[in-house]
Amino acid sequence: MKRARRHALSVGLATTLLAGTLAACGSSGGPPTLTWFINPDNGGQIQIAKECTAAAHGAYKITTSPLPSDATQQRQQLVTRLSAKDSTISLMSVDPVYVPELAYAGFLAKVPAADAAQFTKDVVPPAVDAATWQGKLVAAPFYANVQLLWYYKSVAQQAGLDMSKPVTWDQLITAAKKTNTTISVQADQYEGYTVWINALIAGAGGKIVENPGAQAKDVKLGLNTAAGQDAVKIIEQIAHSHIGGPALSTAEEGQSLTLFTTTKGSFKGGFLVNWPYVWASLTPAQKKLVGFTTYPQTVAGTAAKPPFGGIDIAVGAYTHNKTQAFAAVKCITSPAHEAYYMVHDGNPAANETAYTQSSVLKAYPDGLAAKILQSLKASGPRPQSQYYGDLSAALQESFSPPNSVNSGTPKSAAKFILQVLKGEKLL
Description:
The protein is α/β, with parallel strands linked by helices.
């Protein structure tokens, strides 16, 4: 029955692909249509697609197809379609953490050397590193997100903190206890928790994966280390002192922002680590009360490694229009479009020159644009691994819920992650 069904599906798929190919070519010999699979936003990518289509003067047309809102589901859809050698994927917006997996599988088209030079010109180094696999650029950095520390000026003053200098997590914990306020973090069992754990370990000079790109049987983890213990102590303090709020174990970006902006009741906002979109989410009155600075240090005197995120634009390996697709990527990732996207959708540009544009300086005033760029240059990416999806999920499971984290967690987490990667245990 399975074989018969598979044959029927194959015939149907072949018919569909033939029809799609004919439609893409166009009976009138019109320009090829490039489908760009985009992550959900406020419409910025759709507008850029329209502008790049117009700028192509008939060389190609870009249409957009939305991916799921969840990063893990985005990865799943892309992997599923590319595993089937889907030629309709011309362009795709990819979370940098999934670039290694897609590149390792051969799902990304080879970036021409001349294009690679343009895609990396004036781009912050961490964004270039995140778009590189085994020494070769495999995608073009589009926007490069980074977390900042947000705080109420009055709370910091009451706690005696000098926010013009780097502060540590220990200082924030002491300050929150002293002022009876909260520290808003992301600790739900999802990708945001991996972001926090990784930043804590990286800020202590460690790495979750010590040999990026290694095969599953050879992966070496840096969890059960001094850096891992430094991270655990911070999570423990926030979880057990309740300064992480009443729902720490389900806190994601939105919930942590809500907790931060709460000024009444038993839990009052004090500090928050989150992405720059926070600024646009604040009311004019709140903006007068809130300050921002670089990410807190895990260890005093050791520079923090702010969480790095963003989106890269990659070309599908199976598209029939690679030349046009790479031309479109040049247009999409131009400094002008990155600046537009930073203002319109609140996602920081990967290209440094965007931060000099008046529109960006107006949207991110009082030194915020410069603070974002400074943080981007100092940021630390999550582990580069072709097994990142399983690695991250196993890490989240091992550290959840946060109030269960203790000194033994790094060792047990490392053991579990390696078992998952080797296929000895299931998530």
